[in-house]
Amino acid sequence: xxxxxxQKQRGAEKVSRLPVQFAASKRSDLLPxxxxxxxxxxxxxxxxxxxxxxxxxxxxxxCEEASCPNLGECFSNGTATFMVMGDICTRRCxxxxxxxxxxxxxxxxxxxxxxxTVKLMGLDHVVITSVDRxxxxxxxxxxxxxxxxxxxxxxxxxxxxxxxxxxxxRAIKAIEQLVASPPDxxxxxxxTVPRLYKRVRPGADYHHSLGLLRDFGESCxxxxxxxxxMLGVGETMTxxxxxxQDMRNHGVQxxxxxQYLQPSxxxxxxxxxxxxxxxxxxxxxxxxxxxxxxxxxxxxxxxxHADRQAQRFIxxxxxxxNSSVHPRI
Length: 329
Fold this sequence. Notes:
The chain is an alpha/beta fold. Helix content is 35%, strand content 14%. It has 12 helices and 12 strands. The chain has helices at 11-15, 45-56, 62-65, 71-76, 110-121, 141-154, 171-180, 197-200, 206-219, 237-249, 276-289, 306-313, and strands spanning 8-9, 60-61, 81-84, 88-89, 99-101, 125-130, 159-163, 185-187, 225-231, 254-259, 293-296, 326-327. The strands form 2 sheets. Strands 2-3-6-7-8-9-10-11-12 form a 9-stranded mixed β-sheet, sandwiched between helices. Helix 11 links the parallel strand 10 and strand 11 (293-296). The N and C termini lie far apart (44 Å).
């Protein structure tokens, strides 16, 4: 079926053509959520206010588009992860609630709209992510660069973290763009262990993603690199530990570990709920491995409390890279 430029595929339609198929969940088959999985009510006045600002400036957040369970908490604290380049992704990852389809042309006004909103909100630290844009020659790297430049022009005291796609096939061009206007933190998530890539992250390549983190880190030695994993999709703890060591071997300094939560019955099922004690053990292991900061806990997401994490490692005198563990349990 040919997808029109405006058509969005979600749920069963989105995952119907995945290379590794799985049956849609039945409510009776869902694992009961343990008591440590709790999210704040997302309908507070501050959440409503922030959503109004975003709509007024034609902006999206991954918090909304990916149904993040921390939306209520983060929005109530006046923070958000902005999602640029539209709300339609060229990939079909079955863990993600962002719609799949043919994206439209880039909004030339988006970088300036984003910068104006960052200034209006008075943000000290901003995270910018995007949908995958495999249709663009540089994967959207030049758009990230414009967003960074615009924010620094109007809000120079705001630190900027980018959470990028893998730029597969375009990584050299992407790094060239980003080196010209480097962020304060470069983040790219590995998401899961290599054995599960075809099932969990189709279209991506584990070793390519590791190489992207290494190559950017070597090109911008003063910019910390960051990555994250979601747990509970069928990985073993031994595999998680191996990936953590791979990250360190490729220069990754900041790490996030969180529990995968199934956005709908049609998405990838949760295989198990990792306990708070296991997350704490992984945080301790990460410190021993030499990560500068580890945020590890059931409700941790890649940009959750990113401003607190950033405060430690960017600025004129960043903290030692062997200094802190932040278990979120």
